[in-house]
Write a structure and sequence with these properties.
Elements: E1 2-5, E2 8-10, H1 23-33, H2 49-55, E3 59-66, E4 69-79, E5 82-91, E6 94-101, H3 112-130, E7 135-138, E8 143-149, E9 153-160, E10 167-174
Antiparallel strand pairs: 1-2, 3-4, 4-5, 5-6, 6-10, 7-8, 8-9, 9-10
Amino acid sequence: MLSVGGGFYIDRNEKVKYETPSKTKLEAVKCIQGFAKDPTRGIPANASYNFVKSKEKAYLLHTFSERDISVLIYEIPNKFDTYSYLTYYFKNGKLLYLVYDFMPDHDSYDSFSGMGSIFHYYLKGIESELGTKYDYYDNGYNSYFANWDNKNWTAMFAVDDKNLYTSALLIVTPK
């Protein structure tokens, strides 16, 4: 029997077999899912809009431009067991920063203690990839923050109630 998830199993036969995924396929999944030690996903500072669009492997959900600002929005499946968005922001065609939105469809307000639970849930996963050396701050009311500074990027993880909706964002600026 072979588990297919959700408590379901199928019998192996000539039509159903299991093969261990290759290292190449496992790396491709890492690339689609998220940062794995590099929240910039290998995209350099000031990368062009077209460069990012050609290199990003995740599913492109939406693009838009207004005046000198352009945006690429991607779907990141199963990052920390959640559905997330990754948005690249450009000014005059050059990358400014990227944002991981871990709660893109969340449209309610959470209490400060609820936001703390959300913060620590995601922080555990982010720490496993970006490390535990970061600055931490909470204002005791409606915001939690963690900031990392690396030679190639800076990152800020924030859980707060901007516009009365709780959000969980990781904002990354390549250097």
